[in-house]
């Protein structure tokens, strides 16, 4: 049979729909082909930023494309979180965030332009790190345990506790403990971790809820006394410090964590690749050193692990925030 120009044109037209259908899959197979941005909704130099940079460096080496941290601080993380929720779901814009991601909108009055759907607006990739919250006291208080602190408060002595800010996880657990113990603990909010550490070390406040990385030096030097951690079990970072559960407060469990997310609708193959890569990165000795250096332990696992942590904190902490009437400045 002789092929005419008309035959060739008909064949091309018939194949066109198949070519069109195959384009998205082909495009996905080429991921990544350009720079990936990991948005951190907090300033450079903080815990989340440092973990993000450690992961970004390794991802860049393994994926053979630039991977950079893009700091978008403000409004307790809601500005950066919202930015990622509205980004194209193509695997080139990601979000690394602490668990405040789940509660910020429940303690703040967030403008519609900065709002986002915690449970349905993102694709969980991997829970990157776990970070216990630790209650410390100035030695002048004489507190050696949570029981000592509560006893002092019940006797009428004023007891203050510092946090990095109103509405923070540290504020939430401070008020939660006060309610469960039936005492008055005076909250002293600061604008960030650094000033709260400075004032508890100086003895301007009695106690503080912080993270181990920022107080490890002062604990080692005896300038601060550890009282308890808020994890369900003792942390490997401070194994000699009891939990609030051990202190008799069985329901007060508020572990902190960081997670990596993508915009909703990001292709499943991209999520799988990122999950696999980050799980392997978290096992690298130099990354582990950086993670523990900021008072964290590596996370990992499937996307479902992060999805579960997100949903649990959104609902559980949301109820506590409402019950205690906690708000942010």
Overall description:
The longest helix is centred in the first third of the chain and has 25 residues, at 5-29. Strands 2-1-3-10-4-11 form a six-stranded mixed sheet, sandwiched between helices. The protein is globular and about 65 Å long. The protein has helices at 5-29, 47-63, 78-85, 104-107, 146-154, 169-181, 193-202, 212-220, 268-281, 285-293, 303-324, and strands at 36-40, 67-71, 93-98, 122-131, 134-137, 160-163, 186-189, 207-210, 225-229, 256-263, 297-298. The protein has two domains: 32-131 and 256-324, D-Maltodextrin-Binding Protein, domain 2; 134-229, Periplasmic binding protein-like II (D-Maltodextrin-Binding Protein, domain 2). Helix 6 (169-181) links the parallel strand 6 (160-163) and strand 7. It is an alpha/beta fold and 329 residues long. Residues 1-28 have low confidence and may be disordered. The protein contains eleven helices and eleven strands. Helices cover 43% and strands 17% of the residues.
Keywords:
Tripartite tricarboxylate transporter substrate binding protein, signal, disordered N terminus, 2 domains, D-Maltodextrin-Binding Protein, domain 2, 5-stranded mixed sheet, Bug_dom1, 329 residues, 6-stranded mixed sheet, TAT_signal
Quick take:
This protein has helices spanning 5-29, 47-63, 78-85, 104-107, 146-154, 169-181, 193-202, 212-220, 268-281, 285-293, 303-324, and strands at residues 36-40, 67-71, 93-98, 122-131, 134-137, 160-163, 186-189, 207-210, 225-229, 256-263, 297-298. With 329 residues, the protein is an alpha/beta fold.
């Amino acid at each position: 049979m002789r092929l005419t120009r008309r035959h060739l044109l008909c064949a091309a037209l018939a194949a066109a729909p198949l070519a069109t259908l195959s384009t998205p899959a082909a495009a996905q197979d080429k991921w990544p082909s350009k720079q990936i941005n990991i948005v951190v909704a907090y300033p450079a130099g903080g815990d989340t930023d440092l973990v993000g940079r450690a992961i970004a460096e390794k991802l860049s080496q393994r994926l053979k494309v630039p991977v950079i941290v893009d700091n978008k601080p403000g409004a307790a993380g809601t500005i950066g979180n919202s930015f990622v929720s509205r980004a194209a779901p193509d695997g080139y814009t990601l979000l690394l965030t602490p668990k405040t991601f789940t509660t910020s909108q429940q303690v703040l009055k967030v403008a519609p332009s900065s709002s986002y759907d915690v449970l349905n607006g993102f694709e969980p990739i991997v829970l990157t790190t776990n970070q216990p919250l630790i209650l410390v006291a100035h030695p002048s208080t004489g507190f050696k345990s949570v029981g000592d602190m509560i006893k002092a408060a019940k006797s009428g002595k004023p007891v203050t506790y510092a946090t990095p800010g109103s509405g923070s996880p540290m504020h939430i657990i401070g008020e939660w403990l006060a309610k469960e113990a039936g005492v008055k603990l005076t909250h002293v909010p600061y604008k960030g971790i650094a000033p709260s550490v400075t004032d508890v070390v100086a003895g301007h406040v009695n106690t503080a809820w912080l993270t181990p990385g920022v107080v490890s030096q002062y604990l080692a030097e005896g300038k601060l006394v550890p009282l308890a951690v808020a994890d369900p079990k003792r942390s490997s970072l401070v194994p000699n410090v009891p939990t609030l559960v051990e202190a008799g407060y069985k329901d007060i469990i508020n572990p902190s964590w960081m997670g990596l997310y993508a915009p909703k609708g990001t292709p499943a193959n991209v999520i799988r690749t990122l999950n696999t890569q980050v799980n392997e990165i978290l096992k690298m000795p130099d990354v582990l050193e950086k993670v523990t250096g900021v008072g964290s332990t590596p996370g990992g696992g499937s996307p479902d692990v992060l999805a579960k942590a997100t949903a649990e904190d959104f609902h559980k902490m949301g109820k506590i925030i409402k019950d205690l009437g906690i708000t942010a400045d």
